[in-house]
């Protein structure tokens, strides 16, 4: 388990103080793939770098399985770092060492016996699918391959936590997916807790089970990814959700609408279409679909429909109430 | 102008002068590499934000390096005569000249090493810190290898500076090519020797530059 307790990070520059992280408390459970999203400058990297103390928090505690890392220094801190892997947007491999040597470097940092290193390197290369690249220098690899080497290096010493700082931001969408798939595999097979930061909601939707949204150094919202997608509370969260599940209805269409526009949300296995058609039959309202989709988040369906309800106000209200009783979340977007 | 038979007759003297220059450069280069490399690394790793951040050490060594580098070599040469006498027992000859050449070359090379290390992406260093590497591993396995080819270029520059300095040292008792040029070319208006020494130096420096660049390129894996 990884806990942030009241983490604050203040950067002292020449004239002023910059608050990078502002009193953040978060608990990340073992086996989580935890996503932290936010715009540039929100403090995501600062927070993540506090975990392995690349950045020392100005105040607060970082607890890994109950041990406060901020109390450690020197060789004790080094040993703690062996159990926290980290990968980066720009990979940061040693350019003058081969892929194999880069991985061996991490093993040597953990004082792995010399005769065990080659087999360990082979295993790691197999895991990331780069067996044929052992003697190649990073300069000859593609971005995706470099990130795989980064992952192999980060996992060399069997860490319990893997930190990913924008690990896919420098990659194309296809490569991004393959890296995310690898991360998920690692999480499931080895039970490693993954904390990843990103500004791409797609990434979170793809692999995270829990998430937090950061703004101005603070965590403004956190929870299960599914719940946040279903019912985002903060405006910024909504903005991020809209970037992947967008329901912009063109103005032309809104102009012609003369009923009430509502958003209906069905969580999990509720059969959305069935509920809607029942509603139409039971009440004296007419419905027009403006938009509709079923998103799969964490393999759970999330049905989202936007429709126009026409009819007497009382009937419309009853219809909405009925849908809510059947498990839908109904939100009025626009009154006419 | 250039008297060829005379040049042939002078070849043994030219060769002797050239070997003396080589001795001066060889000794002082070795010493400046042995001391300058660790010193350059020290200047870098004691910098702000690095793993051995230490303002005290950084400013002491930085100051010493700056002091020596701000003294014109010809003055340093004379000022170090007592030290040379103490170490070598004489102030004449290529070995004696190597003392002040080394003193001048150490800080020069150390600064070049420091700036080569500064060119390494900080992220690479951080990534290895995150891996749990010891400072010693970071120095030997990350800093030096990553800066290797710029350090080689730094060695080339140091050799070339040493050629210039050794000529100066030659004029006040160090021997070598510089001494030959002054004795014959300057005091006796001997064009043949003058031209020969200039040509030899040009070829020598070009050769060093070429070899240095070749090595720097061939070991770079980027
Ligand atoms: N080393 C530093 N010195 C001074 N200020 C810093 C430093 N690192 C970060 N900051 C500041 O702290 C704030 C948070 O930065 P941080 O890098 O954590 O943001 P981020 O969310 O990771 O952004 P990005 O998406 O651009 O990576 C910013 O205002 C930034 O300018
Ligand atoms: Mg960042």
Automatic annotation (TrEMBL), chain A:
The protein's name: Methionine ABC transporter ATP-binding protein
GO-annotated molecular function: ATP binding
Keyword terms, alphabetized: Amino-acid transport, ATP-binding, Cell membrane, Membrane, Nucleotide-binding, Translocase, Transport
Pfam short name (any one): NIL
InterPro entries xrefs: AAA+_ATPase, ABC_transporter-like_ATP-bd, ABC_transporter-like_CS, ACT-like_dom_sf, MetN_ABC, MetN_ABC_transporter-like, NIL_domain, P-loop_NTPase
Domain ABC transporter: 2-241
Signal peptide: none
UniProtKB/TrEMBL annotation, chain B:
Record bears the keyword Nucleotidyltransferase: no
Lineage top rank: taxon: Bacteria
Residue ranges of every copy of the ABC transmembrane type-1 domain listed in the record: 18-212
Transmembrane feature ranges: 22-44, 56-81, 87-110, 154-173, 193-212
Record's bilayer topology term: Multi-pass membrane protein
Listed InterPro entries: AA_ABC_Transporter_Permease, MetI-like, MetI-like_sf
Subcellular location: Cell membrane
Keywords, comma-separated and alphabetical: Cell membrane, Membrane, Transmembrane, Transmembrane helix, Transport
Entries under PROSITE patterns matching the protein: ABC_TM1 (PS50928)
SUPFAM superfamilies cross-referenced by the UniProt entry: MetI-like
Family statement drawn from the similarity comment of this UniProt entry: Belongs to the binding-protein-dependent transport system permease family.
Record protein name field: ABC transporter permease
Lineage: Bacteria, Bacillati, Bacillota, Bacilli, Bacillales
